[in-house]
Amino acid sequence: MAGAGGGTGTDFDPLAFHERAVRTPSHGDVTAMRDLLRGTLADHGLEPRVDDAGNVLATRDGGETGPHLVLNTHIDTVPPHVPFERDGEVVRGRGSCDAKGSLAALLDTFLAVDPAAGRVTLAVTPDEETDSTGAAALEIDADGYVVGEPTGLDVCNAAKGRFQGTVTIRGVAAHAAEPASGANAIRAAAPVLQAMESYDETVGPPEHDSLGRPTLTPTTIAGGEATNQVPAECTITVDRRSVPPETSAGFREQLLAHLEPWVPDPLSLSFAFADRETPFLEAFATDPDEPLVRTLRDASGGEVRPFAAATEASYFAADAPVVVFGPGVLADDEGAVAHSDREYVRRPEIEAAAAALRETLRAFVG
């Protein structure tokens, strides 16, 4: 499924590559960043390919029976572009930690590890920050995945899922001077919001050992068309952060059953997920005793913990054990880092991530 393997040199400099990557905008069009990645792989004797979904793929094959490990991250970033800056050992700029620091470490590992048995595939996706069409299109049969994201060198073995949808309450329009002749959809929003507060206490999944409680958060509300009219419709957008074993289909069914009794006749209620080309990112949890988790933990010295954000690792978890790992952090004591104007990563963390990944892969593929 990927480009042919081949010999590589040992002259790859992950810090120099990282600097070039952060200087290359990829918040709208990833073409330049994809070309940089493909060119780097070609310069080291590999033949990467780009599939129909825009994923960059390359494989190093040991030619003997053994495990197949996948190194995955993404090349897109959120807007706006933040220019590259370097202050000693700190690199600032858009994508410096999310996720071009991880990309540099994964690429260093991919080029350095020469499998004696088994295979290593590099699979880099183009649109993780939006619809994840690249990750959704990947068809890889693997024995383990390392997904590069800023974890502060901790080994993240679980993450909540994220679903988004809209609750629609429908009533009957009428003149505001005669409110009893209609059915006010906005007025019914109050008991529906109250019902959301009790959802996880009654029908939601139990608290997860590492991910904790799921959350159901109303984020926007809209209703009414005229100031002198009883509104016939009110919509409430909700954000769901799920934990195993909840699925998107199960959440929809249970939420409707929980909310409907709170809406009086003649009003009605419905729920629809947001339009999305790809499946929602479901919650996942890899057993902390899995060899991939333990080996990377020992190599990195990091903690085993959940990842704070939804991630494309969700798409791979049904196939094989998955860990999320990389340099940089989503937030620090001062506030947001990833996706913020102050995004940064420390260069020694990139080198430490690469060293831990190399040690881990050598333990599996020789």
State mean pLDDT (0 to 100 scale).
Answer: 94
Instruction: Summarize the helix and strand pattern as letters.
Output: HHEEEEEHEHEEEEHEEEHEEHEHEEEEH
Question: What spatial form do the alpha-carbon principal axes imply?
Answer: elongated
Main sheet properties: 6 strands, mixed
Give the strand order of the largest sheet, numbering strands 1, 2, ... along the chain: 1-2-6-3-7-17
Question: What descriptive keywords fit this protein?
Answer:
366 residues, alpha+beta, Aminopeptidase, Alpha-Beta Plaits, 20 strands
SSE map:
Layout lengths: L13 H10 L7 H13 L5 E2 L5 E6 L6 E7 L10 E3 L2 E3 L7 H13 L6 E7 L7 H5 L6 E5 L6 E5 L1 E10 L3 E2 L13 H14 L12 E9 L5 E2 L2 E10 L5 H12 L8 E6 L10 E2 L5 H10 L3 E4 L5 H4 L5 E4 L5 E2 L2 E2 L7 E3 H19 L1
Parallel strand pairs: 3-6, 3-7, 7-17, 8-16
Antiparallel strand pairs: 1-2, 2-6, 4-5, 5-20, 8-15, 9-13, 9-14, 10-12, 11-13, 18-19
Helix pairs in contact: 1-3, 3-9, 7-9
